[in-house]
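Hi Y.,

Following your request, here is the sequence exactly as I used it, all 165 residues.
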Amino acid sequence: MSICFIGLGSNLNAPVDQLNKARRAIEQLPQSRLLKCSSIYQSKALTLDNETQNDYMNAVIQLQTELTPGDLLEYLQTIENNQGRIREKRWGSRTLDLDILLFDDEMIQTPVLTVPHPEMGKRDFVLIPLKQITEDLEIPGLGKLDSLVSQLAKGSISMQGEFDG
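Below is the corresponding structure, written out as tokens. Let me know if you'd prefer a different format.
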């Protein structure tokens, strides 16, 4: 069994509801067991072109799975699609974004999947929820989670609540 961490994000169509629905779908993945969920955090949208977007709701889930990284990615993209995800442009608004952040201590580089997630070391909305649910984590190629979190600007995200149920 592998341990992986999945980042969840949404800024369209009732974002907290989108995250709750995604968590329930992830709980139903075959050969997998949800271990932990972070709180839900609010953050400003990152954009490439100064486009105005709604704030995001973000969280991180820890999952134990027998799925391969590729199979897990396919399941997560199916969940995104089932919740109305449309891939119009990079870093655009979305109903749901599910990213494999870490998969055991593997470093994966394929045309469709990079693990650890390539931007996670710079993203407070990933690192802070990740730190909430795990301790003493070493992120392959990036270093200790504690060290990465200590380098973040303070007060850039805020806790908004917990998952339903």
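The radius of gyration is 15 Å.

Thanks again,
Q.
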